[in-house]
């Protein structure tokens, strides 16, 4: 079945972002309310949108804490290096 958005936005292989909820993937009907977040994420309900917001905020908080920890270690390593101590560095892999 062709997407009802294809008639407005042209045909494409990828589904339009207004076709389904970004969290639960529930189909978004033309006559239903759509709850938007960050301009390009559509949700079927306030609850789905709030869950995504909470998830994003937790992820951003984790990144800030991780970045703060890395800056602290880098600062300590610079002090140790300046004091003539041996400094070992590691590799951080972020997915």
Q: What percent strand? A: 5-15%
Specify the biggest β-sheet. 2 strands, antiparallel
Please state the overall shape, judged from the principal axes of the Cα atoms. Answer: elongated
| Overall residue-averaged pLDDT value | 79
- The SSE order reads HEEH
Content-based structural category: mainly alpha
Gap from first CA to last CA: 36 Å
Proportion of helical residues = 40-55%
Radius of gyration computed on alpha carbons: 22 Å
Strand order of the largest sheet: 1-2
The number of helical segments is 2
Briefly say what this structure is:
The chain is mainly alpha-helical and 95 residues long. It contains 2 helices and 2 strands, in the order αββα. The two termini are 36 Å apart.
Describe it:
This protein is mainly α and 95 residues long. It has a domain of 58 residues. The protein is 43% helix and 6% strand. The chain contains 2 helices and 2 strands; from the N terminus they run αββα. A two-stranded antiparallel ribbon has the order 1-2. β1 and β2 form a beta hairpin. The two termini are 36 Å apart. The mean pLDDT is 79.
List keywords for this structure.
95 residues; two-stranded antiparallel sheet; mainly alpha
List the helices and strands and how they pair.
Blueprint lengths: L5 H4 L25 E3 L3 E3 L2 H37 L13
Antiparallel strand pairs: 1-2
